[in-house]
């Protein structure tokens, strides 16, 4: 008997439907002749808590840290025991196992850890499914691979799981007890992804608050030429007049971006420009014209879709992930959604015409654009060298029933379909013209653009139609606001005479950076190298996928909100007082992105080049000891007393992700109470440990009551 183990019940059903013959549902599996299909329900196993290794670890103590298992243990999740029993019974009858986890690192771990836990030693094949439509599943069943080929991916996933446990469990225990010494009686969760992500927001918020605006004064003219007029701007950094003043000892009134910080030079020049009204008082010094083209945007990865959906429809990243999962599992309208890839296999190109025509049925715009597509075009998106375990999000070709789709499902489906459809339109082509003029020997610059061929852009320039939803209209309005394309310039030739028709000075202020929101945070996690200061490290990190993974980024934002470290204020994501205090008190290396991005680089080497995992974990333990020694209750106490921050909204109990504690004020602690004896249960039943503190480890002094941030969920993770 062949046993197929799917990652989840919906995938198991799709596999069973694609098998030959009739199938029948049993308790925990599907019988399909000589094949049986069973399933996991997410992770059936979890890392054992510290007290499973040693009973004394139930009490959180700085003296226990770091906790490092000699032999790693997994234990069944409480809600998974029944399904584990079913899998064990089916394994006893099986001659061969087919691993049908999702085509990513976590999917490889999820099923394989069950096989390892049950000591299965028979043959294992690998089934990779990214499209749950029956024809696609049938094709995948005919292309089974040897699971041994995917062993390095499993080793990388296992190393990540163990490293996250070591890092999160030890540092969370340590800083929770350090926090108690400092007067905070809640859990202070630390993780290799969540903490650098929190650090990004804290540093951005504080940069905004510390920002001091400065006025600057751009000078413009309305230049007249034979063929018409256009606006041009004084280019003060290359001004001969200002340079002469600088040569005489007058400091240039410019900032590092060339903006004029003193209005007086602009006012003096403007008075003179107002007299240059005769054609020939100035001239066109240079004209640079070039024809350019821009290829269609690539199909979406999950993160790229989350960024665009947040901008267009104000959807939180987790909502985008959940909606895509429904489009994939329930409606079977899109391919595997948790993909980090924006490319498609070349072999998919041949069948795209029929697939896309079917996928566009039911939507007037998509139908019209599919009718205008040239399916013989092969864009840069069809590139096998860029595709690994999974490819970009794409429609499956099943005709959508919009009556069964929610508004969010329909919007995201249209976005995914449109980006794939754009691959079959020509490039957007335009002529760009850059001009420099001289008036009173001073340089003025202008640029313009004229469209040669709209190409793929016609798909993104929708006109309002009857019955169009408010979200669609908002999408168009946002797209128009983002379009800063300069208007075309009149016909110009070098040396031709010009005059000043009008001129003026604008008073503007420098602006602080924008606060992070869902879109910009996901984008920051995707492009984490730009937030690294060390240039050598930045160059290395450009090849790393980023902070977190496609599957975890959205959940991490919600985790930080649930723990009271971040709060949404409108569309902005703001750090709270406790979130800021934690970042200020932690060693800088814990709250910056370098470490976690380098982790991902090491994990990639384990997966892609077969590097052993043991050195990675050994180096982590050395690093962990140094971090534990650097904890400081006095640093945290100072931070709690000095930082500002947003106030979290009151929490409601229950809901997705488990119960949440209500906000409570800080409690006044009695002198002499032992921080080392404090304990708190984690979600897995373990007790949160403590951290070695350079200050006193035995007692906490009496402190005045302080308001505390919203209570955190008692769970340690990444």
Write the layout of secondary structure elements.
Elements: E1 2-6, H1 9-18, E2 24-25, E3 29-32, E4 35-39, E5 45-47, H2 50-53, E6 74-76, H3 81-93, E7 96-100, H4 105-117, E8 124-126, H5 134-141, E9 145-146, H6 151-181, H7 194-210, E10 215-216, E11 219-225, E12 228-234, H8 240-247, H9 263-273, E13 282-294, H10 302-313, H11 317-329, H12 352-359, H13 364-371, H14 407-421, E14 428-439, E15 442-453, H15 470-482, E16 497-505, E17 508-509, H16 518-526, H17 535-541, H18 553-562, E18 566-569, E19 572-575, H19 577-585, H20 588-591, H21 594-609, H22 614-629, H23 633-642
Parallel strand pairs: 1-4, 1-7, 7-8
Antiparallel strand pairs: 2-3, 3-4, 5-6, 8-9, 10-17, 11-12, 11-16, 12-15, 13-14, 13-16, 14-15, 18-19
Catalytic activity: ATP-independent breakage of single-stranded DNA, followed by passage and rejoining
Biased composition (Low complexity): 639-651, 671-690
InterPro entries: Topo_IA, Topo_IA_2, Topo_IA_AS, Topo_IA_cen, Topo_IA_cen_sub1, Topo_IA_cen_sub2, Topo_IA_cen_sub3, Topo_IA_core_domain
Main pleated-sheet profile: 7 strands, mixed
Q: How much helix is in the residues?
A: 25-40%
Q: What's the pLDDT, averaged over the residues?
A: 86
Mass-distribution shape: flat
Strand order of the main beta sheet, please?
2-3-4-1-7-8-9
Spans of at least 5 consecutive residues whose pLDDT stays below 50 are 463-472, 474-482, 653-718
From the alpha-carbon coordinates, what is the Rg to the nearest angstrom?
A: 30 Å
Span of the ends, CA to CA: 39 Å
Number of separate strands: 19
Q: What is the tally of helical segments?
A: 23
How much β-strand is present in the residues?
5-15%
Pairing-aware structural class of the strands and helices?
A: alpha+beta
């Amino acid at each position: 008997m062949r046993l197929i183990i799917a990652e989840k019940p919906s995938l198991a059903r799709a596999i069973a439907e694609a098998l030959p013959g009739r199938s029948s549902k049993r308790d925990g599996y599907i019988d399909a002749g000589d094949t049986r299909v069973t399933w996991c329900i997410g992770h059936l196993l979890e890392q054992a808590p510290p007290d499973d290794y040693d009973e004394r670890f139930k009490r959180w103590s700085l003296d226990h840290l770091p906790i490092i298992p000699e032999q790693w243990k997994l234990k069944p999740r409480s809600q998974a025991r029944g399904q584990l029993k079913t899998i064990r019974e089916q394994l006893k009858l099986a001659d061969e196992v087919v691993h049908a986890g999702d085509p990513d690192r976590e999917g490889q771990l999820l099923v394989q850890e069950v096989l390892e836990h049950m000591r299965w030693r028979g043959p294992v094949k690998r089934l990779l499914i990214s499209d749950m439509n029956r024809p696609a599943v049938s094709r995948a069943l005919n292309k089974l691979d040897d699971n041994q080929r995917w062993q390095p991916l499993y080793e990388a996933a296992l190393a990540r799981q163990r490293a996250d446990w070591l890092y999160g469990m030890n540092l969370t225990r340590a800083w929770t007890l350090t926090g108690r010494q400092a007067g905070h009686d809640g859990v202070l969760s630390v993780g290799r992804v969540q903490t650098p992500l929190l650090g990004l927001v804290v540093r951005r918020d504080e940069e905004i608050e510390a920002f001091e605006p400065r006025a600057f004064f751009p000078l413009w003219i309305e230049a007249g030429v034979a063929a018409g007029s256009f606006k041009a701007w004084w280019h003060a950094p290359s001004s001969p007049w200002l340079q002469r003043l600088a040569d005489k000892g007058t400091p240039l009134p410019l900032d590092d971006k060339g903006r004029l910080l003193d209005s007086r030079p602009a006012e003096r020049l403007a008075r003179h420009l107002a007299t240059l009204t005769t054609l020939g008082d100035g001239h066109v010094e240079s004209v640079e014209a070039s024809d350019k083209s821009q290829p269609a945007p690539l199909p979406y990865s999950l993160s790229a879709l989350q960024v665009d959906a947040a901008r267009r429809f104000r959807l939180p990243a987790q909502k985008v992930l959940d909606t895509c999962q429904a489009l994939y599992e329930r409606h079977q309208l899109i391919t595997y959604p948790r993909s980090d890839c924006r490319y498609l296999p070349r072999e998919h190109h041949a069948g795209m015409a029929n697939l896309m025509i079917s996928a566009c049925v039911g939507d007037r715009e998509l139908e019209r654009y599919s009718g205008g597509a040239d399916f013989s075009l092969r864009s840069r998106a069809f590139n096998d060298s860029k595709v690994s375990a999974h490819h970009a999000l794409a429609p499956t070709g099943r005709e959508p029933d919009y009556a069964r789709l929610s508004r969010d499902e329909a919007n995201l489906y249209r976005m995914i379909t449109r980006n794939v459809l754009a691959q079959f339109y020509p490039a957007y082509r335009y002529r760009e013209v850059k001009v420099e003029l001289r008036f009173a020997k001073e340089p003025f610059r202008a640029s313009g653009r004229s469209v040669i061929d709209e190409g793929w852009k016609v798909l993104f320039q929708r006109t309002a139609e009857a019955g169009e939803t408010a979200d669609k209209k908002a999408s168009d309005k946002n797209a128009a606001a983002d379009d800063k394309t300069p208007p075309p310039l009149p016909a110009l030739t070098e040396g031709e005479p010009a005059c000043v028709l009008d001129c003026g000075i604008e008073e503007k202020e420098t602006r602080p950076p924008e606060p992070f929101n869902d879109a910009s945070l996901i984008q920051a996690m995707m492009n984490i190298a730009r937030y690294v200061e060390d240039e050598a490290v930045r160059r290395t990190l450009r090849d790393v996928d980023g902070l977190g993974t496609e599957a975890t980024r959205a959940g991490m934002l919600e985790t930080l909100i649930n723990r009271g470290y971040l709060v949404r204020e409108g569309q902005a994501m703001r750090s709270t007082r406790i979130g800021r205090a934690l970042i200020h008190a932690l060693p800088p290396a814990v709250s910056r992105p370098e470490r976690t991005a380098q982790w991902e680089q090491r994990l990639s080497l384990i997966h892609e080049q077969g590097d052993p995992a043991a050195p990675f974990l050994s180096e982590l333990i050395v690093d962990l000891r140094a971090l534990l020694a650097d904890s400081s209750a006095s640093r945290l106490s100072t931070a709690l007393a000095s930082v500002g921050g947003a106030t979290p909204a009151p929490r409601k109990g229950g809901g997705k992700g488990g119960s949440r504690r209500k906000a409570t004020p800080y409690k006044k602690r009695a002198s002499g109470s032992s921080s080392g004896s404090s304990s708190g249960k984690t979600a897995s039943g373990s007790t949160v440990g403590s951290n070695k503190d350079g200050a006193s480890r035995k007692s906490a002094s009496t402190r005045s009551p302080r308001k505390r941030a919203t209570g955190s969920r008692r769970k340690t993770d990444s």
